[in-house]
Amino acid sequence: MTTKTKPIDTLRDGSLKATIWKNQSEKGGFYSVEFSRTYKDGESFKDSHSFSGAELLRISRLAEIAYTEITIHRAKDRGEPDPTEQAE
Description:
By secondary structure, this protein is α+β, with helices and mostly antiparallel strands. 25% of the residues lie in helices and 39% in strands.
């Protein structure tokens, strides 16, 4: 029986997505991000992994947000406080 892993987060900007995955290796956990663009083909939805020039800035913004989210998850993995919260 195979267990399907779910992403830890999916960030969206219209039809663009950044899907964040946590993976395990013999060295421990690590994170990866998959970027895609959802489109409709007839009655079904599909994902593409190519982007137009006009979409690149939106992809870069999703990458920046994904980086921040992964930074937060890594801190939690180490038992540290959220690095994006300001100390009082």
